[in-house]
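#struct-help
A.M.: can someone run this one for me? Single chain, 217 residues.
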Amino acid sequence: MRRGSSSQVTENLDSLVDIVSNSVGILIILAVFMALLSVVESPLEEFVPDEETNDLLTTEKVRIPWSHSSQKSSLLFVLQDNQLLYLDRVAAYRSFQSELDNKLEMPLKADLEGYRVELTAQSSQNHCLQFFPESGAGQWWGEVNRADGWFTKLLAEKSPSEVYLFFWADGDSFELMREIREWTWDRRYEVGWKPITERSGLRFCTGLGRSLSFRPQ
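D.P.: on it. Structure tokens below:
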């Protein structure tokens, strides 16, 4: 009886071991299958080095001086449809000289190359210039930044310690604006810009005292 009982226990144990082994084997197969399935179904993630990630994040930052006070003189530009136009304040003031001497009523208006400009008085000491660029006015960046281009020549006459550059840019010109900003940064110029729409007003206003306060409207 003991031998029969011992034999039965052994057989039961062997059966249990077989069942467990089979179960473990099935679980392993399922685990491998699920792992393979997850690899196939999950999208591949592109590895980006930390330095490159930082560069990408930095590129997306947009610096927009909504209010900029500076002792430097400003050079104003507008980018529309990827064409660059210089808004010459000196030429605008010269065009108003005779009217100012005759003390005519404000606003004063003048038509210059590629744009119209209006002068309005804010107070006895402050005034604003508003610019109205013509459609299609300006030149391509590849033309103006060459050695003989007007933009290169203009900056050659100026000093980064004396002037800063400000650009109005429409939605089609954002990428070009970033390229121009890098180009001028390499030449140590301070650069600011503001996105605009067709309805945006391009205004330059003088501030109080000796400091010029440039507040894009």
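A.M.: thanks! The radius of gyration is 35 Å.
D.P.: also worth noting: The first strand starts at residue 68 and ends at 70.
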